[in-house]
Amino acid sequence: MDIARRFPENPILRPQDIRPSRVGLKVEYVINPGAFRYQEKTWLLLRVAERPEQKPGSISLPILGDGGVEILQFDLADPNLDRSDPRIIAYDGQQYLTTLSHLRLVSSEDGVHFGEPPGYPPVHGHGDLETFGIEDCRVTRIEDTYYLTFTSVSSHGVGVGMRSTRDWRDYTENGMILPPHNKDCALFDEQIGGRYYALHRPSSVEIGGNYLWIAESPDLWHWGGHRCLAMARPGMWDQVRIGAGAAPIRTGHGWLVIYHGADAGSHYCLGAILLDLEQPWRVLARSEEPIMEPTFDYERTGFFGEVVFCNGHVVDGDEITIYYGAADSVTCGARFSISEILQSLGI
Ligand code: MAN
Predict the structure, then answer these.
(1) Cα dihedral angle (166, 167, 168, 171), rounded to 10 degrees?
(2) Does the Cβ of 327 fall within 6 Å of ligand 1?
(3) Residue 151: CB within 6 Å of ligand 1?
(4) What pTM value is reported for the model?
(5) Which tens digit of pLDDT belongs to each residue from 254-305?
(6) Residue 97: CB within 6 Å of ligand 1?
């Protein structure tokens, strides 16, 4: 059952609300933000996906080269071109993303109306592991430091990059913490038994699949003790792939994880998993049915329709405000009650 209370103002951020990062690029979509509180405001770290204005007869896409943005152009009539997925271009055995994503900060007094504050630089990919951009950033605050875990994309593969900051102006580079193929990495915001923990989503091409894993670390940089927490479930709404949302939420009954799941038709919904407080690799409960599914027009129609995808939330008592990407096009907000989610899990 869909128990999300969507903002009546949805969508709260659309491509036309965000300035392109460079002359010659156009913002195609603004989605999947990390969310956090800082200086008594709510902040989002948006994924801004850009490409050049498209011309008839060809498709062009940006990548990051040594000298900055380079534009690749393909002739639509070229038989080597495969465009069956709007997010990806396959050409002659090589795959590219149709857009280049970076991360952009916006802030808000009321958690609904967001604007770009001056003086906070965008976060761009760089180096040879981020030539196709950085995406879908989770933000976890541990003590006075914010940790950014995001998807780093390049021709080398899709892995998890990390940066950290205290003031959102200067960043420490932590490099790639989990190698390809991996994404959807959410850090726990406190240690458990003297160790840090992270949820992550490796992908297996042949045996295995796109499942939810947990790892532990003494220092947030060296990760080991990997265990598979939850698999996709044949025949169900999360039958093909699953991945964690933002930092797990401590409740009296366990760590509450909001996660996304997709079926064979790439219909992306949200569900919940409850993990043991002391032994977070133990799953106590999991949603049989989604707690949120694409319902409204802005969730069903867009660059890639039938998607609600969340990697950012802020928590206030029993209330979780999620910020989510809808139809891979726009950013929206919704509220959940923690006790209602737990009730839906039979707790
Ligand atoms: C998938 C989708 C895209 C994303 C790529 C790379 O194809 O999630 O939105 O850009 O992976 O992460």
Answers:
(1) -50
(2) no
(3) yes
(4) 0.97
(5) 999 999 999 999 999 999 999 999 999 999 999 999 999 999 999 999 999 9
(6) yes
